[in-house]
Amino acid sequence: MTRTIPAGTAWTNWAGNQRSVAGAVPRPRDTGEVAEAVRAAAEAGARIRPVGSGHSFTAIAATDGHRLELADLTEPVRVDRERRLVTVPAGMTLRTLNDLLAGHGLAMPNLGDIDAQTIAGAISTGTHGTGARLGCLATAVEALTLVTGTGEVLRCSAEQHPEVFAAARVGLGALGVLTEVTLRCVDAFTLLAHERPARLADVLTDLPALVDGHDHVEFYWFPYTDRVQVKTNDRVAVDDRPLPGWRGWLDDEFLANTVFERACRLGRASPRLVPAISAVSARALTERRYTGRSDRIFCTPRRVRFVEMEYALPRAALGEALDALRRIVDGLPFPVLFPAEVRFTAPDDIWLSHGYGRESAYIAVHQYVGMPYEPYFRAFEEVARGLAGRPHWGKLHYRDAGSLAPAYPRFADFQALRDTLDPARVFTNPYLTRVLGS
Q1: What burial class does residue 150 get, using C-beta atoms within 10 Å of its C-beta: 0-12 exposed, 13-18 middle, 19+ buried?
Q2: Which of 152, 142, 130, 133 is nearest to 80 (CA)?
Q3: Parallel, antiparallel, or unpaired: how do β-strands 66-69 and 48-51 relate?
Q4: Which of 166, 255, 342, 384 would give a disulfide with 311, using CB separation of 3.0 to 4.6 Å?
Q5: Which of 166, 10, 144 is nearest to 90 (CA)?
Q6: Given its phi and psi angles, is residue 135 left (phi above 0), alpha (psi -120 to 50 degrees) or beta?
C-alpha cells in the first residue's frame, strides 16, 4: 500500500523561489505503486507531478494536485561490473549513486558540481557537467522504466520503445514517471584538478586549445572585472596529490561558502561596494593543483543560496555572448553578486537535450537570493535567444512553446509523443503548459 503524506503539505525548492501545496502526497515504494498513484490521480481528475530534491529553479515540479515523492522507491540495485552497467531506483540521489559506484570500482563518466539531485530529476532536466567530448548526464542512460499517464509501465532502451527512450531521457517529467534507470558507467578514475586565475581575454584567445586539450574545462567570470578563475580536470593514473584537509576546508567551506555568504550579504546591504567586492574575490582565489576521486573533484558544496539562468549556445557564439553579458551587467541599476559560469559539452541525440546535434558552450548567470534578478536574466535571455540559445530546463527562463519549437528539431515529435503517453495531461502543470503547449 502506498504511503501518503497528509494533504496540504507545502513544498519549497532549494533556492526558496518556488513553492506549492499539494492536495495529496503519495510516496510509492515500487513501480507498481507509482502506477497505482498515477491511475488514482487520473481517476480523481487531478494532476500529479514527480518531485526530486528541489534543485531546479523553475516551477517544473510545482503542483496543487498530487505531488509524487520518489525517495522511498526500493527497486533493487543491480550492478553488472563486467559490462559496467548499474540499475538503480530513479529517486536515488547522485551522492548516494557515487558512493555506490565507488564501492564497485565504477564511476559516472561526468558530473555537474552538485550531487544532491535525484537521478530522475538530474537527467530529466538535462543536467550536465563540462567536457568537450562528453554530453549531459542523460547520455549515460542505457535503459529506463517509465510509468505513463495511463498507468502503463514501459521498459525503454535503444532496442525497446526507441522513440520513447530518445525523448524520455530528458523528458521534463512530461511523458511519465521514471522509476528505474540503467546507467553505463566507467572504471573508477582519479582526476587532477588545476585551478588558476586568468584574464578573460587571454582565456578566450586560447579557448580552442584549452577546451580540446583537457578532459574537462570550466571558468568563472567575476562581474565588473576582466578576471576569471579557470578550472581544468584531467584523468591521471595515481592519486598522489590529495588536497590537505585544512586546505579543502579553507577554500571550499570557509572561503567559498562562509566568507562568500558574508560578502554577498554586505553587497546586498551596500550595493555600491559590489564592484570592489568582486575585484577582491577575483584576486583572492589562488592557484592550486590536487588529485582525488572523480566525483569528489567534480562536486563541491554549495551552501550560499542563489537563483540561476543557464543557456546552451553554439560554441562559436561564446565570445559574442560574453561581450554582451559584460555590457548588460555594467548597465544594470542593481549589482550582480555572483560570478557567471562557462562550461562545454559534446553533441547528443536526445530530443530535448540542450546539446541536441551541436557542440555547446553554456553560460550560467546567478544572483544572490533577495536581490533583484529578472531584468538581468531577461536581458541575457534576449542575447542568448538571438544566438540560437536553448535554456536549461531546470533553470529560470521566460521562453514558451512557440519560441522553443524552432530551437529543437524534434520538438514537434516530442509533443506528439506526449499526446500518446499522456493524452489526458495527468502530468502537466503551468510550467509544462508554457514550455510545451497545452
Answers
A1: middle
A2: 142
A3: parallel
A4: 384
A5: 144
A6: beta
Residue (of 15, 47, 29, 44) closest to 433 by Cα position: 47
The stretches of 125-176 forming alpha helices (DSSP H) are 162-168
Task: Count CB-CB contacts under 10 A for residue 81.
Answer: 12
Question: How far is Cα 59 from Cα 396, in angstroms, rounded to an integer?
Answer: 9
Contact 198, 205 (CB under 8 A): no
Report the C-alpha gap between 118 and 276 in whole angstroms: 38
Instruction: Give just the sign of the alpha carbon dihedral 174, 180, 185, 188.
Output: positive
Nearest-Å Rg of the Cα atoms of the chain is: 21
387 and 360 Cβ atoms separated by less than 8 Å: no
- Block residue for cell numbers 531546479: 56
Q: How far apart are CA 187 and CA 109, in angstroms?
A: 9
Sequence-distant (≥ 6) Cβ neighbours of residue 296 within 8 angstroms: none
What's the 3-state SS for 40-56? HHHHCCCCEEEECCCCC
Q: Which three cell numbers stand for residue 268?
A: 546586498
pLDDT tens for the 438 residues of the chain, in order: 566 666 667 899 999 999 999 999 999 999 999 999 999 999 999 999 999 999 999 999 999 999 999 999 998 999 999 999 999 999 999 999 999 999 999 999 999 999 999 999 999 999 999 999 999 999 999 999 999 999 999 999 999 999 999 999 999 999 999 999 999 999 999 999 999 999 999 999 999 999 999 999 999 999 999 999 999 999 999 999 998 887 776 677 767 778 888 988 999 999 999 999 898 888 777 899 999 999 999 998 888 999 999 999 999 999 999 999 999 999 999 999 999 999 999 999 999 999 999 999 999 999 999 999 999 999 999 999 999 999 999 999 999 999 999 999 999 999 999 999 999 999 999 999 999 998
10 Å Cβ neighbour count for 182? 18
Residue with cell 555600491: 272
